[in-house]
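Action item from last week, closing it out:
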Amino acid sequence: MTDGPGPAESALYLAAVRRGGRLRPEDLAPEDRPTLAALVARGLLAPTTSGWTAASPRALGDRLGGELRTRATRLLQRAEHLPDGLAPLALAYDSAQPPGPGNAAPAVRSVHLDGDDAVRGRIAGLIADCREEFLSAQPGPRPVEAMRSHLPRDLALLRRGCTMRTLYQPVAATERPVLEQISLRTGAGAQIRVLAEPYARMMLFDRSTAVIPAGEGSNSAVVLTDPATISFLITRFERDWTRATPAEGHLGPPHPTTVRVGRLLARGLTQRVVAVRLGLSERTVAAHISRLRERYGAQTLFHLGWQMRGAGDA
């Protein structure tokens, strides 16, 4: 159960507290039995040889808070993957709509690619043909081996004068090998930012062609060239770009104590519990949390813990 005690449970618990933290069988009315069972199930009352004794509500609060954070994390993960999962259906719907007045064809022009080789080959060709601007939004962890293999093509794109802007999520900017790859690209002129929010995966080439997933995996994609669709995707990318923070702020390793604070937060512990666990003042822990929030772009403790759930330094 992830809800707090109701009025009847609270009243019976307070009655136990007023009796010195103990309840005896003779203190209970018959109608109190279901309420008593609920309090025992919650851990607010513990059975003893002579009755029941009251336990600290703080432990219950920490446990319920952890359960709620876990449930919310699962919901956020589902929300993160939902747009990609619906993309093939949306494209099929748009393509099936009849032409509008004066139009000779449906509004969305697209090419569906199946298989890793087909997707990678088309992307490699689009990057090779790119002459002005390459925009990329890449949520989730980044495979370092793929980044290493793509480094020569990215550097070649930058050397021929193209601008390159890439969005990552915090989970991608915490592993040292990935940070090294980011540094190599930014050192050559690429702009890379980190956004601690869910966003859609996409690649945009010269503001004329886009590649988006056709499903949850990486083995199918859709290539789009419709101007209205491209404009919509660019608007979404620019909106996310303005809310992101430069990757340079993630390149330095955090302080060891900050790392320990982060690990405990990622486990669902509260600021007060973290302070007690590490033997620090709450003010000191708050300072470390402030640095972590800036690093991960998080607004709340829960958001911070969620962003750090797969982070290498947490």
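Closing note: Residues 57-96 form the longest helix (40 residues).
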